[in-house]
Specification:
This protein has helices at 25-37, 48-51, 57-74, 92-108, 113-144, 164-174, 207-216, 228-242, 256-262, 265-270, 288-301, and strands at residues 80-84, 155-158, 179-184, 201-204, 218-223, 251-254, 282-285. The protein is of the alpha/beta class. Helix 3 runs parallel beside helix 7 (207-216), helix 5 packs parallel to helix 6 (164-174) and helix 5 (113-144) crosses helix 11.
Length: 307
């Protein structure tokens, strides 16, 4: 039988204050100042140092979940149309300036391979500037007839940054309609573009919560040419649809020439890594009118999600 250990004797206090407080109001006032200046005396919701602690990550994530949700409900936004696309695809005038600067730099050092490469890239981006115009026109078409009632449907939502995102927010802005920007803090600070509805521009720390808000009310996803970020968003959406973890929505790849060169979807099916029917999860569009028509026809068969 295990012996019970004897309780340890209480240790006497080794330090006794040399001076009792008594009626010493000066010491009391000094202590009160310390109390009022202590972080423990700050309301938890106002304590930034507390909220920044690793242990409070769950609280921060909950805030990022609820803040946009409350705002979108207050604006009666019941469904959205997501526009994804590259930050480097800008309007034609900006693309022309970039190309002119690259050519001037190359004239000063014609043997510089990096400068020659920049000219070639700038020429391609100038060609791609047509997608900026298409995204802007698409957002105009989507927005103009769907924000007239108390409920706002098919509201444009983007990542809030430059390039294609700016074009889509700008298209809604052109026709006096609301649009949403879900921005995120990045190592190279990304400022929101100036065409987002001010009350609907949100800043995120966590990609997961940002993606959640993209998908939650989505009635369609339109992917313009872009880079790693656009590819990430494309495959995340396709995977969610493939696994039936999100509502049925049209997923439209805008610009078949671009996407077919970047990804060989047919080869993926031929190699057996995706099923043939998974290629039906997305469709193609070449014009703003065609993309909007596909969305309208889809929702004539399947009503958009209600938040």
């Amino acid at each position: 039988m295990k012996k019970k250990s004897k309780p340890r004797p209480a240790r006497p206090c080794s330090e006794i204050p040399a001076q009792l407080l008594g009626d010493d109001t000066a010491l009391a006032a000094e202590n009160m100042e310390a109390i009022l200046g202590s972080p423990s005396n700050v309301l938890a919701m106002d304590d930034r140092a507390l909220l920044d602690k690793v242990e409070m990550r769950g609280v921060r994530m909950l805030l990022e979940l609820n803040k946009p949700e409350l705002a979108l409900r207050a604006h009666a936004i019941t469904s959205t149309v997501i526009v994804f696309g590259g930050t480097q695809i800008v309007e034609r005038a900006a693309a022309e300036r970039r190309l002119a600067e690259a050519r001037r730099a190359l004239e000063g050092a014609p043997l510089d391979r990096a400068l020659s490469r920049e000219v070639a890239r700038s020429e391609r981006l100038l060609e791609r500037s047509r997608y900026y115009d298409a995204a802007r026109e698409f957002a105009r078409l989507v927005s103009i007839d769907n924000q007239c009632d108390d409920r706002r449907e098919f509201v444009i939502v983007t990542g809030g940054g430059p390039g294609i995102m700016e074009a889509a927010n700008r298209g809604a802005f052109d026709v006096g309609c609301q649009s949403i920007g879900l921005n995120i803090k990045l190592p190279a600070e990304q400022q929101p573009n100036p065409f987002i509805t001010p009350e609907l521009c949100f800043q995120f720390k966590y990609f997961a919560l940002r993606k959640f808000h993209f998908i939650l009310r989505a009635a369609a996803v339109v992917l313009f040419p872009g880079g790693f970020g656009t590819l990430d968003e494309m495959f995340e959406t396709l995977t969610l649809r493939q696994t039936h973890r999100m509502q049925p929505v049209p997923i439209i790849l805008f610009g078949r020439e671009y996407w077919s060169r970047i990804i060989d979807f047919r080869q993926m099916a031929d190699d057996g890594v995706v099923a043939d029917e998974h290629l039906d999860l997305f469709s193609w569009a070449e014009t703003a009118e065609d993309a909007w028509r596909q969305i309208v026809e889809f929702h004539e068969r399947t009503p958009p999600p209600q938040a």
